[in-house]
Amino acid sequence: MTSPQKHSKNKVEGEPLATTAHGWLRNVDPTEGTAQLERIGTKPVPLRFSPALIPEIGSMEFRFVTVSGQGWISEDDEFALIEVEKFVDPDAGKRTIEEILNDPNPKIFDPDKVVRASEPFDVDEFLRIIREGRDV
What we know:
Layout: E1 17-29, E2 34-38, E3 45-49, H1 54-57, E4 64-73, E5 79-88, H2 97-101, H3 123-134
Parallel strand pairs: 3-5
Antiparallel strand pairs: 1-2, 1-4, 2-3, 4-5
């Protein structure tokens, strides 16, 4: 990918950060390889796609996606630009109800194979330990 400093649109400076973001694709421009990622509570994030991804982005407008790549943060602590190296449609791979019902090898719930706690434990204490671990 080219350096973002070479583009007149969305000039950014500084070192990029490895970035993953989620939102809705809007204003997709396959000819320029650009789009915006709309997220709740923030300004839309300008996106620039790697040339290999440009053929795929035209059909993704208005879809909720996860993008990964290199991102630059503005002085306002918001994304100034994300150069997208990979994106995922969360709906990809989901099966329709017909596919599930007609699956020749369905996954069957077997209560005998459920992993159970070996002895009683205090759920509140367990959750407290988890919360404390987050603060470390």
